[in-house]
Amino acid sequence: MIAVVVSRADSASEHTGEQLLALADWTAREDDSRPDADGGGTYHRTTVGGTVLERREFDDLHIRLDDPTPAFSERPDFLVFVSRHSGDTGPLLTCHFTGNFGPAEYGGSDRAFAPACPGVQRALVAGFDEHAPEGYDVAVECTHHGPTDVAVPSVFAELGSDEAEWDDPAGAAAVARAVLDLPERDATVAVDGGDGPVEGVDDADGSDGSAPRHLVGFGGGHYAPRFERVLRETAWGVGHVASDWQLEELGHPAEHRDTLAAAFAASDARFALLEGDRPALERALRDLGDGDADAGTDVPSGVRVVSETWVREADDRPLDLVAALEADLRPVDEGLRFGESRSTDYEVHSLPADLLAEAHGIDADATLAAVEARSVAFETSENGTRADGRAAFPHADAREELIDDLARVLRGKYDEVTRLDGAVVARVAAFDPAAAVERGVPEGPEFGRLAAGEPVEVGGETVRPAEVRREREERFRV
Hints:
alpha/beta, Aminopeptidase, 8-stranded mixed β-sheet, 4-stranded parallel β-sheet, 26% strand
């Protein structure tokens, strides 16, 4: 069940709540067990894609609410607070999680975090992208206000950024549609882990038994374009995000390891992505261990600080497989790249260096594509653009198949390419300057014409291209 929280103290929230009722077939019910101001009285339920959504209204502003979870008729899998966004950003649909890395100036408790649901945020961003009216941007914000004492994962879905947008029916409808889409949002969009049993929203870790595909973000501005890119362009979910100003509120990282650990526990994350160079923060994160978090979930010993390159390369691959390949080959940040095969069984072999280099010089894109197609992972140089070194192959024949692929690339330059025992042999007939000199052809334009396949006249005689060509053979050991 998805719980939707509407605040009567927030006009954007009220308008979004009205659009929710208009866009789906809801059943009105009565709850006399609690005051109308606290979610009682008339409330509404509907079912979308087999998932129940329950909508309740509260008098207080969202950020000042106590945990609204008990108001709902059953324990929800997660809460969505439909809310306004205030700022100088123009028309904007945005979402974020709640908590405070420092003092709680805007609700919640100091240095505390509500449980996040990274997969739900992914789905909201996808919904915003689909439904945003013309002129509206879509963004993800850092963690920056209450409530923090929430019993289940929660997320704010916001309409911004001023009175004109708060009263805009089209903007409110876009937020409402994104919320109503959550149960049916495809799992590849809403990849998650640990968000609860909502089908299509929560199964994140590839069923490989590894850590959830979540990370905690650090650094950057209030709006988080780097972490938004991660949500849009990879299979990773982003939990809590500490912007630059939130890190200032935190203070020295080594003195607030418990706060850092609480952010990871609330995000169900074991990975950190940093914006900028932050050695003190990196040290503090790597020193985190079991029992650091007072949030009901222990943080595993040592958080892994990863790069955006690592996140993009790991993407939706089983994380246990990524770790094994980094151990058997090299780390992603030192040039490991992944191929098309997802086999968890593999053999590590050297790439055919000479053949690979020749093929790369003929068609670099086709050469790299061939290695990707035949491998589980491979080592690279030149910022990941050139396969070089060793590769993990899914079976013994895959390396042989790669050699055949590279031999085909050589046919773009050579007249004949064949495989012999332990080698690829390439032959080409090419213009031979020495033979041309022997026929009396002077260096200059005539050389160029002969090389281009045109005959030339020298001393009243015709010299044909075939007469000044010689066959050259190259052998590439494999």
